[in-house]
Amino acid sequence: MKYTLRARLTLWNLLIVATALTLFAVLLYVWLARTLSGHHDQGLAYEADRLAATLSGSSDPLRALGELDADSSLEPLLIVRNADGEVLFRSTRLESSEPNIGAQTALMHAAMQRDSAVQLFTVRLKETGLVRFIRLRLAHPAGTYLQLGLPLGDVDLLLKIVIVASVVLISIVVLLTSLGGLGIAKGALAPIDRIASTLESIEATDLSRRVDARTSDAEVARLSSSINRLLDRLQRSFLSLKEFTIDVSNQIQTPLTVMKSAIDVASHDHDRQVDDARTLEDLGNEVDALTAAPQDLRDYSLAEADSSSSRSEPIDVSSVFEEAADVVRALAEGHDITCETSIASGLAV
Predict the structure, then answer these.
(1) 72 three-state secondary structure
(2) Distance CA 160, CA 9 (A)
(3) Which of 48, 296, 310, 341 has the largest count of CB atoms under 10 Å?
(4) Considering only CA atoms, which of 312, 308, 303 is closest in space to residue 349?
(5) What's the gap between Cα 256 and its chain centre?
(6) Beta strands 77-82; 87-90: pairing state
(7) Count of CB atoms within 10 A of residue 17's CB?
(8) Is residue 307 scored above 50 in pLDDT?
(9) pLDDT above 70 coverage of the chain, percent
(10) Distance between CA atoms of residues 191 and 52, nearest Å
(11) Is residue 266 within 8 Å of 239, Cβ to Cβ?
(12) Among residues 235, 345, 232, 248, which one has the least CA distance to residue 295?
């Protein structure tokens, strides 16, 4: 399938713009996600360290957590699980908002890994949405794990806004770019269309029309000037050919008229003596005139031919001389003249 130059320019422009904007949007999303998650993780780690420091001096951490929860001192979502994933404690906020938090698969598996490393992971809860959790091991009771979570509401919303805004912005920019690209391409190629229309309207019988070279584009102006110079040469050639054709026609018509007249006189005037020698002489002269006309045509063709192509191959001069000798012998025999030639073979130019 062939596309116009205007379509190819527009599609290529759209491809570059769409690729650049998409790449920018992806990089922006990744950078924002990492930056916001990093700040969120720092706040979560701070809360976990603060809570762990509060519980470190308590002989019964679970009771201490209950007291903190009763005083509304626990802003994050808090769970304490044993190594089997069973919930030993959860904050009042979780009891009201997420009653089925105990059966949450990701949180259960995180507690059942039974290692002491601090872990950060994201969980989507049914009511709360995305929540970032940190898991750390408690010193006592033995084999218990503290899971502290903060909702990613603002972060998640901001990332969604970035996605929607990127899709809308890219769509608008691509649309405007396509319209602008089509307009620019149409304006840039309009002189080419005018040149094509002018050339299509030019006929061999009328080469007086010229391409409009008035344009601000240097390339198009140069092309128009070159085409106009070519049309000038063609017009001169056609005019010369026309004049030459008229001349040749006259050169042929006149001898033919004279010959026809002489033949008519010789054929129909039986009452008087016709000077046969004079008539034959006249006919011979007119034949010579007719012979000159094809020679003129040949000379014109050679003059118009490309000199480089006419010299592209060697010419066997010996053969040319032999043909010329045959013509001379034929002419000589009519006058009782013997013609002898001595032509070396292999002559070439």
Answers:
(1) coil
(2) 34
(3) 48
(4) 312
(5) 65
(6) antiparallel
(7) 17
(8) no
(9) 72
(10) 78
(11) no
(12) 248
